[in-house]
Amino acid sequence: MGSSSSALNFGAGPAKLPREVLEEVQNELLSYNKSGMSIMEMSHRSPEYSKINTDAQAAIRELLNVPDNYMVLFMQGGGVGGFAAVAMNLINRTGTADYIVTGTWSASAAKEAAKYGKVNIVFPKPEKLGDIPETSTWNLNPDASYLYYCDNETVDGIEFPNMPYNPHDVPIVTDMSSSIMTKKVDVSKFGVIFGGAQKNIGPAGVVFVIIREDLLGKPMDICPSILNFTHIYKANSVHNTPATLSVYIMEKVLQWIKKNGGVEGMEKQSLEKSVFLYKAIENSNGFYSSPIDKKMRSRINVPFRVGGPNGDESLEAKFLEEAEKLRMYQLKGHRTVGGMRASLYNAVTLKEVKLLVEFMEEFQNYTLSKSNQTI
Ligand SMILES: *Cc1c(COP(=O)(O)O)cnc(C)c1O
After folding, report:
1. CATH number at residue 200
2. Ligand 1 pocket test target in 74, 75, 80 with most atoms within 8 Å of CB
3. Taking the mean position of all CA atoms in its chain, how far away is CA 304?
4. Which of 29, 87, 166, 297 could be a cystine partner for 113, CB 3.0 to 4.6 Å?
């Protein structure tokens, strides 16, 4: 420990980026492609940036096996900007949309969409977070413009187990901000997949949108041009100045994913990491606990309490303090949830998760030996 390379970053986003990518960026920062200029200083209409834009789109297509009738767009405004964009581009079709609310981000998306059309919440808020009621009780509207869900609720640590029940075959829209490229997905089953890049595939500043072609072309009149999927598509994602540096770094992360086994490789690693951590939580005799039902537990964001199911706040503060002494950072849970949260995005290695678990075991042993009590 002690060198600048050894910090362990379990942050929920912006999050850890692959070291190799950052080194490559560092090497090229002052002179991109021997141009004597930084990529940051170049026109977004230059051949250099055009190539980056094209290569990034192609890498997403290749990694996710995107069918030809789907478009890949890059935008700004963050994941939250995407909430408004989805509604303003799609809700106009019938004036209404179905929202599955499983946590913080889908609730926020539904609230945003309600500004632009009628939002139907598919099931009431369950008593226990992460419970999904029987599909027979779902209130689905056959005339919905789309059916929306959040694939992975980053704040709460809830991952949607599969595709949602969709008997009327309405276009499915999903927020994959925190799960994109962590597992294989069949893009052809979706209308729109969107999200911010800053969790798994790049730095903040760029939003990816994968949209089925026939869903373009019907935005609301009030839709600002920078959130208009059709405009962005027609302009090949350079409608106005994109976050060029962010797209450039994202493109490098995508190449890094390709070199490291592609999405399949990421998925395998994601399972190994999360199983390892959840096992440690399960095997702690209740010293650590996960608030989320097993079926819904996220592979990517793992919230847990320290010192019992409701957490012992002074113990949790101590946990964070001791973790930071070992240079394990950003383990504090979201302010609305409390407790701890370890985010295991693509750039976080199994080795790093093992170090976290080792620390958790030591912390537990130390605490129990000191208090000489069992929890
Ligand atoms: C981080 C996140 C967002 C918000 O993204 P911003 O870029 O901060 O607007 C939305 N949805 C999910 C699932 C997220 O993880």
Report:
1. 3.40.640.10
2. 80
3. 19
4. 87
